[in-house]
Amino acid sequence: MTQTITPLETIPEKLGIGEVFVEKGGVHWLALNGKSVRELAQAMNELHARFITITAYQLPKEEGFRLEYHWDLDGQLLGFSFQLAAKSIESIFDLCEAVDWIEREIHEEYGLDFTGRVYEPLLLRQGDNLGVNLRDGVNQRDAVAASDAVAASKETK
Amino acid sequence: MSYKIPMGPYHPALEEPYKLDMICEGETVIDAELRIGFNFRGIEHLAETRNHIQVIALMERVCGICSNIHTLTLCSAMEGITGLTPPPRAQYIRVIMAELERLHSHVLWAGIAAKLMGFKTMFMTCFELREKVMDVLQAISGNRVNYSMNRIGGVNRDITDPQAILKMVEALELEMGRTVIPIFTTSRTARSRCAGVGVLTNEKAISMGIVGPVARASGVPQDIRRAAPYAAYAEMDFDVPVQPAGDVTARLLVRALEIMESCKILRQALSKLPPGEIHTEGEKFAFTTGTATARVEAPRGEVMYSVSWKEGSRNPARVHVRTPTYATMPAIRWMIKGARLADTPLIQASIDPCYSCTDR
C-alpha cells in the first residue's frame, strides 16, 4: 500500500531539515534549525501557502525579540519562530508582497529593521518616533535614536 | 500632467477615517498611496494590562460591526491555553451569533454600496432589513453593538426562543430573494456602476494574501468556516459562493449569496440547537504558559488572534490581532489603478473596509 505524502510533510524536506511539525495551541510549528526567513518564504511560495501575519514578541530583560511567521496551507495554520539577537531580520517583501504592512507595522511599533527593503512613510503614526509598543525606556530610547538616524540620513540625501 | 487628489481622512464616502492620495491624469487614477492609523488606539498594548475578563470587554471594542467575532476568536484562543471546551449548545449559539453578525454586516454594506451608487431607495430598503437583524441581536444579547456573548468556556446568554429568530430569517431571505438580489444583479444603475469596475485579478488576490468576500470575488475559494471549521461549523451544510470576475459586481454578488448561505446556516443551527449547558459552569481553570492561536471567518474574512500567557499571571503577555481589512486594504491601490476618479469611492467601499479593525 502506498502512503500519500501531504504538502505539510514535504516542507522539512524542501528546507533540508530533519525536524517534523509539532501541533501546539492550534498551530503546526516547525523548528527551522538555522534556516533563514528568506529560504522559508521561498519554500512557502513553492507550496502556494497563503501568508497570514507576523507576531512580534518583546522578550524580558535583554533577551531581544521573537518573531513568529504564520502561513496557511490548505486550512492548516503553520508557525515558524525566529529569535532575534540583533534588532534586525531580512525582509521577505520582495518574495511575498502580503508582508508589506506587517513588516512596516513591526518596524514602527518595535523599532526592528527588516533589511533589504525601503520603508514608505510610517504606517500607523506618521511622523512619530519608532517603538511605540516597546515596554521599557531603554529600548524606546534606542528606537528613538534609530528613528532620528533614519530621519537624518533622509535629510542628507 | 498629473495631479494629486486626496480622499480623506474625513470624507463623505468614508465611514471611518483613512487617507487615499490618488495620482490622476485627467479623470484617470494612475496610482495611489494609502495612509491608515487615524483610529490607532494601541489596543494590543492595552490588552497586556487587562485580566482574562477585562480583555474580552476590551477586544469587543476593536470593531463596532463585528464585535462578536473578536470575542469569539479571543475566547477560542484562551480556551486553547486553559484547556476548556465549550458545551455543544454554546458552540451552536456561537454559530448563530456569528451568522447574525454576518447578516447585519453584509446588509449594511449593501446599503452603503447602494448609497454610493446613487441608489438611495435601495439604501433605505437594506437598512430596514438590517434593522430586523439588529432587533434579533438585541433580543438575544440585550445590546445592539457590544453583545458580551462570549466567555472562556462558552457563552453568557442562552437562546430561549429559536422559532422567533427563524421567522426573521425567513422574512429576510424572502426580501433578499424578491427585491435586493434581483435589483442589484439586473438593474441598469447597479450594472453600469459596478460591472468591470475596480478589478482585482485572481493572481493579485493570491499574491497579496487577500481574504474573505474580496478574495472569493476574485475566484479564490477560501473560507475558514470550511477550511478549518470552528464552533459547530463542521456540522453545518453550506456553500462558499465564489465569483471569478474580481470586479465590484462580483463582490456584490458574493456578499448577496453569502446572505442566503447565512440564512441556510441559521435555519440548521436553530432547528438543531442541542439541549444542555451554555458554559462550563463551575469548572476551575488556569492559564498555562504558552501561546494559542485561533482563526474565525468574520464578515470581511479571516480574523486571527495569537494569545500568550505566563502561568500565574493575571494578564496576557501578548495579544496579537490580524484583522481581515488589514490583509485586504492594500489591494485598494491595485483596484483603483486605471479607474475613473468618480468610481473610486465605490471601489474602496467594495472591500467593505473596517478601519477601526485595521488600526486597532
How does this structure look, described?
Chain A has 157 residues and is of the alpha/beta class. Chain A has one domain: NADH:ubiquinone oxidoreductase Nqo5 subunit (Beta Polymerase, domain 2). Chain A has four helices and seven strands; from the N terminus they run αββαββββαβα. Chain A has a five-stranded mixed beta sheet with strand order 1-2-5-4-3. In chain A, strands 6-7 form a two-stranded parallel ribbon. In chain A, strand 6 (88-90), helix 3 and strand 7 (113-115) form a beta-alpha-beta unit. Chain B has helices at residues 43-47, 54-59, 67-82, 88-117, 120-141, 162-186, 188-194, 202-207, 212-216, 224-227, 248-271, 324-328, 332-336, 344-349, 355-359, and strands at 2-7, 19-25, 28-35, 150-151, 154-155, 290-298, 301-309, 318-322. Chain B has a single domain, classed as Cytochrome-c3 Hydrogenase, chain B, CATH 1.10.645. The mean pLDDT of chain B is 89. Chain B has 360 residues and is α+β, with helices and mostly antiparallel strands. At the A-B interface, strand 3, strand 4, strand 5 and helix 3 of A face helix 3, helix 10, strand 6, strand 7 and strand 8 of B.
